[in-house]
Amino acid sequence: MKMTEIAIIGGGPAGLSAAISAAASGARVTLIERDDHLGGQLKKQTHMFFGSKKQYASTRGIDIGDILQEQLAQYKDRVEILTDATVIGIYEDGVLTIEQNDKYMKLKPQRFIVATGASEKFLTFPNNDLPGIYGAGAVQTLMNVYGVKPGSDVLMVGAGNIGLIVSYQLMQAGVNVRAIIDAAPRIGGYLVHASKIRRMGIPILTSHTVKYAYGKDSLEKVTIWQVDERFQPIPGTEQDIEADVMCISVGLSPLAELLWQIGCKMAFVPELGGHVPLRNENMETSLEGIYIAGDVAGIEEASSAMVEGRLAGLCAAFSLGYKAGNYEELRKDCLEQLDSLRSGPVGEKILKGLAKATA
Ligand SMILES: Cc1cc2nc3c(=O)[nH]c(=O)nc-3n(C[C@H](O)[C@H](O)[C@H](O)COP(=O)(O)OP(=O)(O)OC[C@H]3O[C@@H](n4cnc5c(N)ncnc54)[C@H](O)[C@@H]3O)c2cc1C
Questions:
Q1: Sorted alphabetically, which InterPro entries does this protein's record hold (predicted)?
Q2: With CB atoms 3.0 to 4.6 Å apart as the test, which of 191, 235, 292, 353 could cross-link to 272 if both were Cys?
Q3: Segment 291-305 mean pLDDT
Q4: Average pLDDT, the chain
C-alpha cells in the first residue's frame, strides 16, 4: 500500500490550489484526478473571469488552470500527480482506493482534501432522454475540449451564468441559439452576459419552461410554455421551437458521495446547491483530518474554490506540524479574501448557506 501525507482528490482549481499551499508549507502531497488532464472546469472556460486580481480576474479560465499548474510544478519534489485516476472509495481505516488504467491501488494518507467539484442537475419532462439533450457543461466540454459541435439549433434552458456563457460560446462556434428560457421571472446570470446575447438577437424568455420534447431518433422539436409566479404552467401559452440540441443549465449539485461514504455529517443547504458536508472555518469536516474545498463544499465560483483550496491545504499541512513561517497571516488572508468575494448581492445567498453548513 502506498503512503502519503496529504491526499487531494480532484485536480480542479480547488484541488490544484490546495496542493500548491500544502506543498509550499512543506507537506508531501498526492493529487488524484480522474480526467487525463488537470484543471477541472477551467479547462473548458475560454472566457475571461470576473473577480479580483488575486483570483486572476480578466484572465481566461483555461489560462488560470495553466498558471496553477506552473505554480505547482515548483514543488515537484514533494508532489505526486496521478491523472486518469478515480478515487472510488474512502474507507473507515483511512485508506482510499484508486482505479487507474483498470488497476486498483490503495493509498493511506494522513490527511484528505476532497475537491471533487459538482455534477449538473437535470429536468423532468417527457422524452428527456432523447439524444441531443445535454447538460450545458457537457456541451461546453464537447466544444471547448474536443472541438465537436453538438448540433445546429440549440434551445438553452437556464439563464444563469453558465447558460448565458455557454450560449455565447455556442454562437462563437457558429451554432444557432434559438432561444434561452428560464422558469424564474428574472435572469439569474450577470446582466453584462445577458445584454451581449440579446444584442445578438437571441430571445431570453423568463417565466418559461419545457413542456415536451419530440423526436424520432433524436431531438427535433421542443414545446415550451409559460409559468405563473408559483411556477405552474399556463395552458394555452405553448410555443414550438425547432431544435436538434437542448442544453439544460439549471444548476449544479456538490459531488459529495465520497464524503457520505466515509460518514461526514451532511446538511441539505439549498443556497449551496444541495447536500454539503458540515465544516469549520478551516474547511475541516466533522471527521478530523478530512478537509473540503470548492464546489463540493457549496456551489460558488472558481475564485472562491481557489481560496478555499489554499486555506484547506494550509490548514491540513499545519495540522501535520508544517508551520509555514507566517501560517496565521496566510490563514487570515484567505479568510479575508473569502469575505470580500462574498460581499456582493450573490454573496448574501452564499453567506446564508454557510451559516447553516458551518459547525
Ligand atoms: C460554463 C461555466 C462558466 C463558469 N464561469 C466562471 C467564471 O467566470 N468565474 C468563476 O469564478 N467561476 C466560473 N465557473 C465556476 C467554476 O468553474 C467552478 O466553481 C470551479 O471550477 C469549481 O472548482 P472545483 O475545483 O471545486 O471543481 P471542478 O473544477 O469541477 O474540479 C473538480 C475535479 O475533481 C475531479 N474528480 C471528481 N470526482 C473525482 C474522483 N472520485 N476521483 C478523482 N477525481 C475526481 C473532476 O474530474 C474535476 O477535474 C463557471 C462554471 C461553468 C460550468
A1: FAD/NAD-bd_sf (IPR036188), FAD/NAD-binding_dom (IPR023753), Metab_Enz_Cyan_OpOx_G3PDH (IPR051691)
A2: 353
A3: 96
A4: 95
